[in-house]
């Protein structure tokens, strides 16, 4: 648990997206610390490390007796940074919390149930 709440190191977006990615290609749990809370997110009582607030914990499970999750920790974290809201709960939540600031609400695209913030909204999230 200490590895999540008091990590030895926090990685930046550019470090995560570099090759090779410093995050292990393993299954497990990861923590996401924010320099600023998105939108009106309350942070009282949240854990703070190096002036950053822990607001999200994600998993990439290894299920005993079953196939591993399709994505390891490295792939999941990179997905949060550069894919769209449909494939990332963190990204979808951030986009919703930042809708007023971005001007790009979550929308259904195509003929199915797929939802994103449109191309410009996803670009806004890439930069936020």
TrEMBL record:
Q: Tell me the ranges covered by the GIY-YIG catalytic domain, including all copies.
A: 28-128
- Protein's recorded name: GIY-YIG catalytic domain-containing protein
